[in-house]
Design brief:
The complex is a heterodimer of chains A (109) and B (261). Chain A is mainly alpha-helical and 109 residues long. Chain A is 76% helix and 0% strand. Chain A is built from 4 helices and no strands. The longest helix of chain A has 23 residues, at 54-76. A 14-stranded antiparallel beta sheet of chain B has the order 8-7-6-5-4-3-2-1-14-13-12-11-10-9. In chain B, 30% of the residues are buried. With 261 residues, chain B is mainly beta. The chains are: A mainly alpha (109), B mainly beta (261). Chain A binds chain B through residues 22-24, 26-27, 29-30, 77, 79-84, 86-87, 90-91, 94-95, 97-99, 101-103, 105, 107, 109, and chain B through 32, 37-38, 40-43, 46, 54, 56-59, 61, 63, 65, 67, 69-75, 77, 79, 81, 83, 85, 87, 89, 92, 94, 96-97, 99, 101, 112, 114, 117.
Chain lengths: 109, 261
């Protein structure tokens, strides 16, 4: 039982760390909270069975890292549009091509 | 005399129906597209809808342009730079030329539709990158037969804004034929009622419209794809919610300038 919760906790914590590093970082909250819950259960079971708590510490550490990273990113990351120079050029090009095409059309309905 | 009068009345009403009352050249709407995963929103891209006037030697047209740009945090993973645009008659919103120029994570596609409303045909050009051709592009030219009134995607979006929704009862539905990927598809809209929602441009009373595409499984669910248009003369699309295979998406208005009314 203890091992099951430790495994679940470590998996959830690793997923949380990976997600928090990706642009999809706010989704990392779900596995991070799950990891904390599993970690607490594993901690309680380890204490009851008098077993080592090293793995539990690892779960807490990873989930705290991911939560920290997510919080940091959600505060300081600005959602802004990247480089649009190429797009603006394409828009202008599209307009030029369109005008050329429209000149050759009979636009009466 | 009576006949002439009736004919005159019909012509006047027909032209007034065809008038564009909802928007003008110079209108700029910008939206944030986000992905919704169990309540956690992740902003994906900025969508802009802009109108401008285009002059050719013979006439003046309205350019309806929609662009989608991913936010910088996504650019290293999946960069999207899409242009969808349509050149239409400023009064009747009849499309003459439609261009779709998309660049999605390195996948490039260019589509051009030239409408001929006399013969009800569309000259289509589809261009994709290909190593098999010397030019580096694979061009496919086709002529597609369309029904009367078939529009392209961009024009349809703007056309909906021009409908007399205030006259429609709740539950009323209307459908439009849209040419997309060289196929005609029927897109239906049902008026679900009025709702006041708070948006970035203030609290707005809106028409709530459900969208469905017949014969296509892009949009999932029943009444899960909803568009909110402001219940005023501008009918600005302020909010849209849609369900696709990979989850839920949202489109929220960020700013609106150059409004007609």
């Amino acid at each position: 039982m203890r091992k099951l919760f430790i495994t679940l906790g470590i998996i959830a914590a690793i997923i949380a760390v990976i997600l928090s590093a990706l642009p999809l970082f706010n989704v990392a909250i779900i596995p991070a909270i799950a990891a904390l819950v599993f970690g607490f259960i594993a901690f309680y079971l380890s204490k009851k069975e008098n077993e080592s708590k090293k793995a539990v510490q690892l779960i807490f550490l990873l989930s705290i890292i991911s939560l920290g990273l997510t919080t940091y990113k959600s505060i300081f990351n600005k959602t802004e549009v990247g480089d649009t120079k190429a797009l603006e050029l394409r828009v202008q090009e599209a307009e030029d091509n369109a005008i050329e095409e429209l000149e050759g059309l009979d636009l009466s309905e | 005399m009576k006949r002439i009068f009736v004919l005159l009345l019909l012509t006047i009403s027909a032209t007034s129906l065809a008038q564009n009352n909802a928007f003008q050249a110079g209108e700029k709407l910008s939206f944030t597209a986000s992905y919704n995963m169990s309540g956690l929103l992740t902003d994906l891209a900025e969508v802009r809808m802009e109108t401008s006037e285009i002059k050719t030697s013979k006439s003046t047209l309205l350019r309806l342009k929609c662009t989608a740009t991913t936010y910088s945090k996504w650019d290293n993973f999946f960069k999207i730079r899409d242009i969808y645009e349509s050149y239409v008659n400023p009064k009747t919103l009849t499309p003459y030329l439609y261009q779709r120029d998309i660049d999605e994570g390195g996948h490039y596609k260019f589509v051009k539709y030239t409408f001929n409303h006399k013969t009800n045909t569309v000259k289509s050009l589809r261009r994709q990158k290909s190593k098999n051709f010397e030019s580096g592009f694979w061009d496919r030219n086709d002529v597609v037969n369309i029904n009367y009134g078939t529009k392209d995607l961009v024009t349809t979006i703007y056309h909906i804004r021009n409908l007399d929704i205030h006259k429609a009862p709740v539950g009323a539905s209307d459908s439009f034929t849209v040419l997309f990927d060289n196929k005609e598809r029927k897109v239906s809209f049902t008026l679900l009622g009025k709702e006041t929602i708070s948006t970035n441009i203030g609290s707005k009373e809106c028409y709530k419209l459900a969208i469905s595409i017949n014969g296509s499984d892009i949009l999932k669910g029943n009444n899960d794809n909803i568009l909110w248009l402001t219940a005023d003369a501008n009918k600005i699309p302020v909010y849209a919610k849609f369900r696709v295979a990979v989850g839920n998406g949202e489109l929220k208005i960020k700013s609106a300038t150059g409004l007609k009314n």
